[in-house]
Amino acid sequence: MPTISMFYGIIIRMYYAPDEHPPPHFHVYYAEHSAKVDIRSCEIMEGRLPRKQTKLVLAWAELHQEDLLADWALVMNGEEPFRIPPLR
């Protein structure tokens, strides 16, 4: 599963198809926490992160929504996604 971004101890990844399924989403890992985030709504679909990390991830997702959807299209075709700049 490729890492597409990392910032403040947060790791953002996307799985390659056929392991993935709609809706478009990405996986977030922070310490012992993990979550799945819906790209279109920029909301946590599953899992849990600490409040601060949730705010950072959702802000990053909103800033990079187009890039995330482009990466989703790539992984659905079995292609490697592009890296997306971290939150600064």
Q: What would you note in describing this structure?
A:
The protein has helices spanning about 50-65, 65-75, and strands at about 5, 10-15, 25-30, 35-40, 45-50. The chain has 2 helices and 5 strands; from the N terminus they run E-E-E-E-E-H-H. The mean pLDDT is about 95. With about 90 residues, it is of the alpha+beta class. It has a 5-stranded antiparallel sheet, with helices on one face. Strand 3 (about 25-30) and strand 4 form a beta hairpin. It has a domain at about 1-50.
Helix content: 25-40%
Pattern of helices and strands: EEEEEHH
Strand order across the largest sheet: 1-2-3-4-5
User: How much is the average pLDDT?
Assistant: 94
The low-pLDDT segments are none
Largest β-sheet summary = 5 strands, antiparallel
SS field, number of helical segments: 2
Strand content: 25-35%
Radius of gyration from CA coordinates: 12 Å
* Form type: globular
Number of strands: 5
How far apart the termini lie comes to: 24 Å
What is the structural class? alpha+beta
Short key terms for the protein model shown above:
88 residues; alpha+beta
Outline:
The chain has helices at 51-63, 65-76, and strands at 3-7, 10-13, 25-30, 33-38, 43-48.
Topology:
Elements lengths: L2 E5 L2 E4 L11 E6 L2 E6 L4 E6 L2 H13 L1 H12 L12
